[in-house]
Amino acid sequence: MTHGGTNSVLEAIAHARPMVVMPLCCDHIDHSVRVVAKGAGVAVDMQSLEPKDLAEAIEKVINNRRYIS
Question: Domains in the chain and their CATH numbers?
Fold first, then answer.
């Protein structure tokens, strides 16, 4: 899980780890869009986040072989 900052995203990519991105501000939103577009993880909307949404995002990343290298 990451807020979507540059260093967090680059580190996850460098170690081939899937991400659940919860963008907070600034460039985080752009990073989350790129992570999803490249298939490196999923993003959740912090403005409307419900516990079940977060659980589903985590399960999706863990259980989907697409996100496992």
Answer: 6-67 (3.40.50.2000)
